[in-house]
Input
Amino acid sequence: MATGGDGSENAPARSPVVSYGIADDAKRLVEFAIGEAITFKQVVSTSADAVLFSARSGLSQILSSSTETFHEAEIASPLV
Output
């Protein structure tokens, strides 16, 4: 008759179904993919920042030119 403690806890540990080579390759591929995703995110973020900076700069120049032109027009044409 079996007593407590004669069960699976005394059995040797089973090796995983997947061989270690495939598991290591999969781990490296996942780590590589994560690294590439992080790099892609950084590139997209930097590009978006550059586009926004250019747009703001262009809009600022347009606003500045428009304001100057408006003030010149005010001075050139006295109130009627």
Q: What stands out?
A: The helical segments are 20-76. The mean pLDDT is 79.
